[in-house]
Amino acid sequence: MFKVSSIFATAVLSVASFSAIADEVNIYTTREPGLIQPLLDEFTKDTGIKANTVFVKDGLTERVSSEGANSPADVLMTVDIGRLLDVVDAGLTQEIVSPELEEHVPAAFKDPNKHWYALSLRDRIVYVSKDLDLTEMTYEDLADPKYKGKLCSRSGQHPYNTSLIAAKIAHDGVEAAEEWLKGLKNNLARKAAGGDREGARDILAGICDVAIGNAYYVGRMKNAEPGTDQYQWGEAINVIRPTFENSKSKGTHANITGAAIAKNAPNPENALKLLDFLISEKGQSMYAKSNYEYPVRAGVELDPVVASFGDLVIDDLHILEIAKHRQEASELVDKVGYDQ
Q: Which residues bind Fe cation (predicted)?
């Protein structure tokens, strides 16, 4: 089942240290603050507004809800659409009025009611051993018995995978998605666990030949210091951007990082300035070149490693059409025993 921990992660900064003054903005984020720190530092340099971060690994909705009107949170930032919708559906956000966000975020990656916007894209791809003569495949191919004992994957309950499964449900229905997930389960080379980079590690070790992972991890691995473990993992793999067989656009599934402004934000003007910065050409370029994520703003230059993967064609489904099936996706993971 789709589970949310009620235990709050330890804040990076004490909430007591926050205050509603003109030169601050307070960010609650489900991604490690260090991964966006270069962007926040540049924002502070440009605006003079200090960006405070609190890392909330699980239970973001519960935390903000329990803090109520006294919450110091200005911006709620998540690494997947599911957690973003959780805070919106709980009534913890406010309408965002930003011509910049409206202009530069594609319709498929923003809220029609203007309570959230995507800031970057994370395409869900396949890492392939360089020993394989393989340049294209569908997501459905991963369930082919020819890959029995050759597939590596992180937990099916991780939001990156429940989003992918939800997309399969949206395209083909629950029954077809269940059969597909059974095929993936049967092809696992090891227990579904760890992170995406461990898939590349295990391809290098000969444990599996293919692995499901996000593209930006490949950017990190291939840009790592030569000779390090991560660099060697990255050098052991090629990248394929799969498609769903029934996708009209023949596109690749992508989740998002995104953000909303908290309903009781003490610094709403600064929150808006931050979001406008993150969608600016400078902010989007830093997402692309510091985090190796795919920018949502058109015309932004990519990191050379990510650019080498070729043009990204996104699956034609609206992100909300995918997100509404995430509960069913989570239930299927348990039903087929994917993580067992």
A: 216-217
